Amino acid sequence: MRLVRLLLALAATLLVSPAFAQVMPNGPVLSAADLRASQDLSGQWTWSIDPYRDGQAGFHGGDVGEGHRRFDDTDVAGVRAAKPLALYEYDMDAASVATLPSSWLTHSAQMRHYQGLVWYQRRFDAILDPGKRTFLRFGAVNYAAEVWLNGTRLGTHEGGFTPFAFEVTGLLREKGNRLVVAADSQRSDRDVPPPVTDWETYGGITRDVRLHTVSGTFVDDAWVRMAADGTIAASVRLNGEDRANLPVRLAIPELGIIRTAVAGATGEASFRFASPKRLVRWSPERPRLYRVELSAGDDRWHDIVGFRTVTLRGSEILLNDRPIFLRGISLHEEELGAEPSRMVLHADAEKLLGLAKEGLNANFVRLAHYPHGEAMLRAADRLGLIVWSEIPVYWRIAFDDPQVLEKTRRMLAEMILRDRNRAAIAMWSVGNETPVSEARNGFMVQLANDVRQLDPDRLVTAALLTGREQRGEKRVVTISDPLADAVDILAVNTYFGWYGSDRLEDIGSLVWDLPENKPFLFSEFGAGAKFGLRENGPSPGKFTEDYQANYYRATLAMADEIPSLAGMSPWILKDFRSPRRQLPGVQDGWNRKGLVSETGERKLAFDVLAQWYRSKAAEAR
Ligand code: GCU
Q1: What are the b/e assignments for 39-53, b being 16+ CB within 10 Å?
Q2: How does pLDDT run across 489-515, given as a tens digit for each residue?
Q3: CA of 601 to the centre of ligand 1 (A)
């Protein structure tokens, strides 16, 4: 083991060498894009399935025939009317209509289990603004996207949960623009996540699509935060021809702060100053946010930001220099309801995070297993919930493939650059339950180092694997994962009493042998229960609410015995769709480990956890 750790450390130093320069998003960052003025392209889109990818290759694999080129800027009906012998086998203008953003699972009953390629088209008029630049930004397309505007191919993006943008200056016209997106949810073993997960693949254009018109030179990437030493820091990168030596003004009006810096040759400017006494630091009890403004040339940028420090002291996590126990819950980005889709609306995020905060007395959420939408992160900032944010490096990834590493690093950068102004986010997770191998270790260490390069003020974590051994009478659980050395916070998913043969009455006597110098989290634990399925008596069966409640009592009792436990995010707040779960009459396509049902009914275990958190909170006061 020592040799493995030495090799890892060596790999770590090698991997951060320039040869492994930071992988950045293709295209602009457009920080706080959701607060920038924009033309929102949500609404009526037409869609057309293409299971055989007819629009991507001819039947012999060559170029796509004219009659199948759905990305062309062609008025098919007009051409057909003018040339009756013309052969078109699509017409995006006349195709079915759906309201986007939303996953195609809810477009029609037939689409409920569709995985593959769907073509989308949006027609729109635009206000042309000479001298300005326009970017087309997608909040997310699951899984891969190829985009055309007025017949011009803009490019592609891979990864279902992070934003991307293309410059469309000069491509727009005033009337009848034709935006075509090929959205493909099919994943291979070379994708992230891989094809097999334990959640529903919500294919489609699942987040906002907006046109942002900005000045020729504008604030593209802006990172404003309280650094670990309590000072306020801002790093700005301008995009545009006039970026060199341009003065940049930073203001926090409520604090009477105004600072100016001059951008360097590459358009980068930075600020660092003491935080004023009257600044109220962000915390779950007091999620104070401030409007921060930047101006450069005639560009105006703003974000709503909280200021706080997150640091470590041995096995303690310190928020604003005070130890904090993370009373958490995990959740997927899925709406409440019997027929959910991928969550989009702020109101839905507020509802679920409100349930966690007010109902469970939580101060922490693990947003699993992929970057959730801006709506969720901003709601966590506003409501005061600390966040674990993660990229979908989940189970088996092609760790030995450099291209897979490259695309994963890009996803990580896209996530961090989109969200690093969110005070709520305390830690970035680089993966979940990934099997130990040399290739995997190197892969994960690279990701951990990327996090430290992109955001040295936050903590790195991952859901690690545990080992079990018998030491005399004792049954001992250890963290047998070499990745433990590369993360700041140790986290494990534990399911003793649900998976495996342990009885609930046995788990209390499990001994956890853990490194003492690092905080330890239960990133998951949980048991399934179908709402309303009850069984009184001494040993209720699995999937009853009674068993789930007993499971929580036993696991929380075990947690009480772990000195370095700094928090937890049980699995999971709400029952969620999973194609892997098919026990008739109980699961029926749902993972039933929620503390509430898919429609929000509270199960017995909800109060068991809420009560435990209430007493934890009282202890901390
Ligand atoms: C795993 C995994 C989750 C999954 C859960 C479960 O640990 O991380 O994505 O849903 O266990 O089995 O319910």
Answers
A1: bebbeebbbbbbeee
A2: 999 999 999 999 999 999 999 999 999
A3: 21
